[in-house]
Amino acid sequence: MFLNFDENDIAYMVYGPGPSSAVLYTFGKWNIPQKASFITFICIGGGGGGGSGRSAASGIARGGGGGGASGSWLSATYHTSFLPESIAYAVGKGGAGGASGTNGTNGSETIVFLPVTNFTSTAGNTLARASGGDGGVGTQTTGAGGGANPGVTNFSTNYPLSGQCYFVETTGLGGGTGGSGAAPTGGSVSAGGTGNLTLTGGAGGGGVTTGNVGGVGGDVSALFSEILPTIPGGAIAANSPGGNGTMVLKPFASLGGAGGAGFNGTGGRGGDGSYGCGGGGGGAGTTAGAGGNGGPGMLIILAW
After folding, report:
1. Pairing with 286, which of 99, 105, 185, 226 sits 20 to 30 Å away (CA)?
2. 21 falls in which pLDDT band (50, 70, 90)?
């Protein structure tokens, strides 16, 4: 999808594929406006999917699924004298949430690169890149771990063209840990860690104790509640899902999915992450809730 796709406008936006898509990337080319002196590429990698909670019979400790990690964020500004007439891009898909008994899948990277005939980026032709976040762990006796490896760009280290631009890169945030059989509340997450004010991982799903006591899903909160309200985890009830993440463009902020509730019955599904953010972990139960989908990646292009 494009917003204001006109060479007389200054802002362009492309989203990665949705969770039901069979492809991992949205590919395309963009012509640089002739009157532009500078171009900024803002890349956001796809978020990781949340892990499923554990399914097991009553009286057995069941852990909630871990939330998926967010993708990384990179802003790179070039003078147009260093750029060709057009650029190519591949915007990554978010990872799928884990079905009952499985981990979430990883999100895909978002890349801007010099146009080539086969749409293949290499280190030598990459203009900007943000990697995707890892999926959360699912189906553990104890609380499952959140996506442990958030997106990392390492742009200055791995990409020679980084020397031709001014760039800022930010590592993504990991997902929340699922609740355990001893402490069933799912782990909450919030923006602001490691300098990342814009993206979050997904929260952890609730667990269930050996005494069949379920736990609430973890919440997801922005750095400032005035920008985005907290996304609540599932309450302790059958099939109680975590809330889906949301996003605002100005100032840019995006939140992951909240954790589903653990319940001695059907656990709640994890919430879906918004753009670039992790999906929430599923709640444990006799039938566990699935993990939420990670949010698709995003590319914003500014020209002036």
Report:
1. 105
2. confident
Q: Which residues of 30-44 are buried (b: 16+ CB within 10 A; e: fewer)?
A: bebbeeeeebbbbbb
| 3-state SS class at 101 | coil
pLDDT in tens, 78-124: 999 999 999 999 999 999 999 988 999 999 999 999 887 566 667 77
In this predicted structure, what is the pLDDT of residue 11? 63
The length of the chain in residues reads 304
Q: Enter the pTM of the model.
A: 0.92
Find the domain containing 115 and state its range. 1-304
Can you tell me the distance from the alpha carbon of 15 to that of 164, in angstroms, rounded to the nearest whole number? 26
> Left, alpha or beta for 101 (phi > 0: left; psi -120 to 50: alpha)?
left
How many folded domains does the chain comprise?
A: 1
- Contact between 233 and 282 under an 8 Å Cβ cutoff? The reply is no
Enclosing H/E stretch for 44: strand 38-44
DSSP string, 247-277: EEETTEEE--PPPPPP-SSBPPPPPPP-TT-
**C-alpha span between 211 and 264 (Å, rounded):** 9
Bridge partner residues of 88 (DSSP): 29, 113
